[in-house]
Amino acid sequence: MGRSYKQLSLDDRCEIACLSANGSSVRQIAAALDRSPSTVSRE
């Protein structure tokens, strides 16, 4: 039916920061976290 939404956890945000600092693309980070690229790009 409807989509279930949940906020990113602090761990997810830290992972995004680490992967981004290491040069990973938004799409690579999104795939690693099983999130959409648009969610990752907003962080």
TrEMBL record:
Stored SUPFAM superfamilies: Homeodomain-like
The chain positions of domain Transposase IS30-like HTH read 4-43
Q: Which Pfam families match?
A: HTH_38
According to UniProt, the name of this protein is: Helix-turn-helix domain-containing protein
Source species of the chain: Bradyrhizobium pachyrhizi
